[in-house]
Amino acid sequence: MAASAKATIIGISGCSSSGKTTLSRLLRDILPDTFILHEDDFYKPEEQLPLKNGLRDWDCVEALDVEAMLRTLDYIHEHGALPPDLDSKEDQNEIGDSDVPSSLIEELRNKVLQILTEGDEVGKVKSIAIIDGFLLYGNNMKEVRAKLDIRLLLRVGYEKTRRRRERRSGYVTLEGFWEDPPGYVDKIVWPNYVHDHSFLFKGGDVEAEPDHKSLEDLGIQAQPRLDGSMADNLRWAVDVIMGKLDLHTG
Q1: Is residue 123 left, alpha or beta, with left meaning phi > 0 and alpha meaning psi from -120 to 50?
Q2: Looking at the whole model, is its pTM more than 0.70?
Q3: Of 47, 68, 76, 180, which residue is most buried, by most CB within 10 angstroms?
Q4: In whole angstroms, what is the distance from residue 242 CA to residue 34 CA?
Q5: What is the torsion angle, in degrees rounded to the nearest 10, for the CA atoms of residue 177, residue 65, residue 163 and residue 148?
Q6: Measuring CA to CA, which residue among 147, 135, 12 is closest to residue 65?
Q7: What is the pLDDT of residues 82-92, one digit of tens each?
Q8: 38 has which bridge partners?
Q9: What residues in the chain have per-residue pLDDT under 50?
Q10: What CA–CA distance (Å, rounded) separates 231 from 237?
Q11: Residue 211 annotated to the active site
Q12: For 1-43, how does the pLDDT look when each residue is reduced to its tens digit (9 = 90+)?
């Protein structure tokens, strides 16, 4: 991140239904001057999405307007805010209850404030932008990855992914509303996640131990435990962010 940047951009990535948006919204409640950008807001029109196994593939790089994402990330670094013409469809989607007690949110909010107070940084912190997305760190997203100042990876197994995704009623899109056809996780979501992220895990097994050397080389911090609770993930994320946050306005 350039010293002149007016925002710190935090990436939160992981498989569909890993809790990215929930975690992002919880962090927005805890961290100062924080706003959220959703990768899902950069989907191309549905008719332009590629077909895989006879189905529209929403979970691949070809479904995304990557150039628009790059321009938006540059704008955020330069201005410390979202572009005024960005219209978020993702904010209209349901995410369900986080099961995180309000007492923990207050505890972590106070922890952040204490760190800032001790460093005499209250009111001096750069804006914080969180971008959540299913595909931020793959080798087909190197340009996007390079623009993220802090990179968090959520880890979730197949069974939890399938249960969560199948409980969702659907997604608001540019054209209206999308509902997953039967078998969408097995045909599209999970295979694509494995394809794009196996290089970050030992033996290419995305449910196994992360390849810490690969993560370190790319500056990615991985959730410590597969299928960890949202409360545990929130504590971990706050610790990582506050340890890496560039507090000065520059």
Answers
A1: left
A2: yes
A3: 76
A4: 13
A5: -140
A6: 135
A7: 999 987 765 55
A8: 132
A9: 248-250
A10: 10
A11: no
A12: 566 789 999 999 999 999 999 999 999 999 999 999 999 999 9
